[in-house]
Write a structure and sequence with these properties.
alpha/beta, eight-stranded parallel β-sheet, 9 helices
Length: 233
């Protein structure tokens, strides 16, 4: 019998999935154009398994050691895709290169570090470039004006594959951050060969529906699925 905590997770995941589908309908989009990434940092492997039992297959993690333990604990769950959403450290690059998608490439140094790690692993690594649209000093990310240079540099690397952009807006009300989501989409569309940047990772528990309405293809939802988390450092 499932525990009460596991039941809460499965119920919450299903509710968020329904909200994603409803937001897609409002935006005139098919539900399968948005991937729901369950941000599981600070959560137990049991919580991840509960979400997986409801169909979750995309999980977002910030910390390599925590991720490795969870990956091993749910290794029997088929077709799981792991998303790295934390800060990129050189000494963790080899492990980060094992993720299916890295959302947080904020500068050329990080791109090059991951390129080397991917080459050593012998497999291309898919990444997103993080853009700091609100110019917040506490958050990483390239300034919008500097994105073309970073994109050009990253595209010249041999083992990194840039698939799109990511942003983390300030913790404002959903309608207050809508312009930032729209700005990320516009910024993507203005780059050279924008068709090569299909992914927009934007929107979290408080604002993912607005992000979908503005073009998000990946939403990163933690609290609305798992409840409050205890940070693991």
């Amino acid at each position: 019998m499932a525990s009460r905590a596991a039941t809460r997770v499965t119920t919450s995941y299903a509710a968020v999935r329904d909200r994603v589908a409803a937001a897609c309908r409002r935006a005139g989009r098919a539900a399968d154009t948005v991937r729901l990434v369950a941000v599981s940092k600070g959560m137990t492997a049991k919580a991840l398994r509960a979400a997986a039992n409801e169909g979750a297959r995309d999980f977002g993690e910030n910390y390599v050691q925590e991720w490795q333990a969870k990956r091993d604990a749910i290794a029997d769950v088929a077709a799981v895709s792991w998303h790295f959403i934390g800060r990129i450290q050189r000494n963790k690059a080899a492990a980060i290169a094992e993720f299916g998608l890295v959302h947080s490439v904020a500068d050329v140094r990080a791109a090059r570090v991951l390129d080397v790690a991917a080459e050593r692993r012998g497999a291309p690594l898919c990444v997103l470039l993080q853009v700091n649209l609100a110019a917040e000093s506490t958050k990483g990310g390239v300034a919008a004006a500097d994105l073309p240079s970073l994109l050009d540099s990253a595209r010249r690397l041999s083992w990194v594959r840039v698939l799109g952009l990511m942003t983390i807006p300030p913790p404002f009300a959903p309608e207050a951050v809508r312009p930032l989501f729209a700005a990320l989409r516009t910024l993507r569309d203005r780059q050279e060969e924008p068709q090569g940047l299909p992914e927009l990772s934007m929107g979290m528990s408080a604002d993912f529906e607005v992000a979908i309405e503005e073009g998000a293809t990946l939403v990163r939802v933690g609290t609305a699925i798992f409840g409050p988390r205890k940070e693991v450092t």
